[in-house]
């Protein structure tokens, strides 16, 4: 079925106005206060780079085409019978003075909010799309993770430290997928699916699961608005495994150091599993009793109407995700059930507040230092602040879904705009 398109110019203009007003009606401030902008512009040009130099590493970024807030740059190479994996993560923390206007504003926002046709960033774009973004050819400060992986993709060693880096290539999913398909991809790009598949196999062994639900995106096409359904591509899932690997190792570092903040989620209760099993039977695609639910969901890609209903039903298995902060005593429940292991958000600091603190805690612990007093003081408030940011984001999405349509608009009321799917969605997106 073709995407519904708003074909009347006046209605299109009316819809554009409604979409632009959604964040404001949800209580989301799109503009930054003058003192925040002033601080961001100042630190963008005065913040020094780290002394450690890793500019010889041929890092590359891979994001949706057109992205400017580039959090991650990766390097992959074979190393004996295993792999060497370096992951540079944008160091926004170095630009933010504790207690300053920029810091206080980021705690108010919590995360970047994606609305129909635009987004409201966590940090001013002079930083998030400029001085802190890992843009191609630019010297940048980063938290650089270095991992050794064995032949099966298991992590055998890890470290993280601040260093200066320079991304050599700015890649996008469509372009890399084309190179992989036509055989022109270099070895580093060919290793992304190789390592990604190994990590997915390890996920199945842990009993992890993910929802490959397609995104519904509002796009403007030749002055009109259209709803497009976009399936998650294999390359995105393989690339997301690099992020998940890093988050799992960050969690282990903090657990061993007895300080930090985890992304946790309880296992679904037996009643939820029983209900889901009955729903799959009613939808004509029964979940076999001897098959782990993660493996069952891996085969449901949302390409058929029945699949979409199953994916919607499965969301009940992925409830209760939140953040657990600790300092001095490790919490009893450390596991993110959908991942099947302890996990932390650590790879999207330009778009998510909590990652900034996870990176600072991990870097300090690996270096043999205690995290700073300012970092430790912030940890207890982060779960509530991230919940607030998530609620604002949800309100924007819900208002996009339930807004009043222009009278002549044939667009379905389920209009909503999702964030770029450079991160694989699990539950309410614990790795996004």
Automatic annotation (TrEMBL):
<dbReference type="InterPro" id="IPR001900">
    <property type="entry name" value="RNase_II/R"/>
</dbReference>
<dbReference type="InterPro" id="IPR012340">
    <property type="entry name" value="NA-bd_OB-fold"/>
</dbReference>
<dbReference type="InterPro" id="IPR050180">
    <property type="entry name" value="RNR_Ribonuclease"/>
</dbReference>
<dbReference type="Pfam" id="PF00773">
    <property type="entry name" value="RNB"/>
</dbReference>
<feature type="compositionally biased region" description="Low complexity">
    <location>
        <begin position="399"/>
        <end position="421"/>
    </location>
</feature>
<feature type="compositionally biased region" description="Basic residues">
    <location>
        <begin position="422"/>
        <end position="432"/>
    </location>
</feature>
<protein>
    <submittedName>
        <fullName>Exoribonuclease R</fullName>
    </submittedName>
</protein>
<feature type="region of interest" description="Disordered">
    <location>
        <begin position="386"/>
        <end position="432"/>
    </location>
</feature>
<feature type="domain" description="RNB">
    <location>
        <begin position="51"/>
        <end position="368"/>
    </location>
</feature>
């Amino acid at each position: 079925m073709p995407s519904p398109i708003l074909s009347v110019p006046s209605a299109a203009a009316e819809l554009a106005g409604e979409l632009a007003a959604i964040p404001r009606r949800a209580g989301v401030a799109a503009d930054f206060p003058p003192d925040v902008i002033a601080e961001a512009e100042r630190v963008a040009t005065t913040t020094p780079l780290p002394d450690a130099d890793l500019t010889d590493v041929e890092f590359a970024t891979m994001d949706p085409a057109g992205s400017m807030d580039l959090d991650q740059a990766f390097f992959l190479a074979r190393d004996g019978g295993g792999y060497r994996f370096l992951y540079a993560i944008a160091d926004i923390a170095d630009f933010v003075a504790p207690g300053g206007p920029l810091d206080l504003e980021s705690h108010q926002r919590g995360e970047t909010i994606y609305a129909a046709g635009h987004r409201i960033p966590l940090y001013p774009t002079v930083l998030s799309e400029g001085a802190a973004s890992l843009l191609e050819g630019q010297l940048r400060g980063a938290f650089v993770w270095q991992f050794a992986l064995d032949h099966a993709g298991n992590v055998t060693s890890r470290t993280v430290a601040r260093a200066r880096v320079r991304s050599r290539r700015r890649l996008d999913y469509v372009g890399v997928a084309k190179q992989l398909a036509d055989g022109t991809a270099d070895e580093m790009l060919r290793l992304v699916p190789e390592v990604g598949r190994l990590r997915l196999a390890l996920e199945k062994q842990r009993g992890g699961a993910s929802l490959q639900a397609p995104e519904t995106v509002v796009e403007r096409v030749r002055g009109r608005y259209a709803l497009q359904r976009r399936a998650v591509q294999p390359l995105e899932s393989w690339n997301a495994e690099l992020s998940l690997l890093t988050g799992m190792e960050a969690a282990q570092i903090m657990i061993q150091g007895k300080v930090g903040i985890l992304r946790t989620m309880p296992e679904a209760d037996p009643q939820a599993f029983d209900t889901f099993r009955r729903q799959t039977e009613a939808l004509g695609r029964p979940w076999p009793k001897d098959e782990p639910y993660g493996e069952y969901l891996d085969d449901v890609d949302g390409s058929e109407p029945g699949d979409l209903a199953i994916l919607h039903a499965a969301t009940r298995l992925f409830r209760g995700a939140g953040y657990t902060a600790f300092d001095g005593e490790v919490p009893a429940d450390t596991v993110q059930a959908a991942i099947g292991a302890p996990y932390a958000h650590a790879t999207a600091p330009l778009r998510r507040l909590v990652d900034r603190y996870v990176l600072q805690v991990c870097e300090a612990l690996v270096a043999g230092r205690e995290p700073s007093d300012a970092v430790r003081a912030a940890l207890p408030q982060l779960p509530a602040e991230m919940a607030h940011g998530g609620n604002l984001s949800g309100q924007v999405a819900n208002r996009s879904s339930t807004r009043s349509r222009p009278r002549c608009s044939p667009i379905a009321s389920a209009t909503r705009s999702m964030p770029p799917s450079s991160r694989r969605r699990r539950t309410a997106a614990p790795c996004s």
